[in-house]
Amino acid sequence: MNIVTSLTAAVSGGAVAAVIYAGSIALAALTAIAARTPQRRRDARHVLEVLLRPHRSGRCPAARRSHSHPAKTEES
Is residue 67 part of a domain? Predict the structure, then answer.
């Protein structure tokens, strides 16, 4: 089997997007830890929050529960 064929098969199915996403998260995490200025560290943490925020498309029941209104509590 040719190496190009193997790489093409490995890359199919969204693997490229997953690698880019994981690389973005790793780079932002590294920047959040190692940046020289506090402002850059804060900016990197903000980027991490955006990248790791759960999707709100309505297709995922867990995402709907976590972002819905808080449960009503009984008042005594």
Answer: no
3-state secondary structure 33-65: HHCCCHHHHHHHHHHHHHHHCCCCCCCCHHHHH
Number of domains present in the structure of the chain: 1
Between helices 3-11 and 15-34, what is the axis angle to 10°?
A: 80
In a domain, 46, yes or no: yes
CA distances from 57 to 17, 61, 64, 67 (A): 19, 10, 8, 11
Give the pLDDT of residue 42: 92
For residue 45, pLDDT over 70 is answered with: yes
pLDDT of 76 above 50: no
